[in-house]
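User: Hi! I'm working on a homework problem where we have to compare a predicted structure to a textbook description. Could you give me the structure for the chain below?
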Amino acid sequence: MNINSSKVRKEDLGNNYVSGYNYNPIRQEEIVLEGSFKKENSIKSMAIQKVNRTLRNFLLLLVLASFAGYYFAMTSEFNLNNLSHQISTLNDENAELENDLNKLKSLRNVDTRVSQSNLLQKAGQVMQVSAVGTVAPEAKKIKVSSTFDWAIGY
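Assistant: Happy to help. Predicted structure tokens:
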């Protein structure tokens, strides 16, 4: 009987043979599965993986929340800039309208002052004047000399 070999048969063990893995660790009659399999994880490593997965999901949730907050902040800033532009445009138009109103008020004030002081009055009656004959004045004639005196110099 050879117990140190890798293949042990039932006959070799005799009456001491008890079925089960705990009592027969040497028994390897034939390999059924071959390949590289994942090692069994310990409880500590499984707990660490679970904590890491939970923290990863929480961090992902925070990143998505920060993106949503950034989006809403940018849309609010865009709306505020748009409103600020509209306000400045309205202020400029308001200033122009106030200037026009001040001009109209000043013209109305001048008109009311003139009408109060009676500086401009309508003619009570129309005078007719007979036509006066006019004579055009004579134009002065300039004498032109036929000789020209030359000057020597520069």
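For your comparison, note the following. The chain has two helices and no strands. Residues 10-112 form one domain. Good luck with the assignment!
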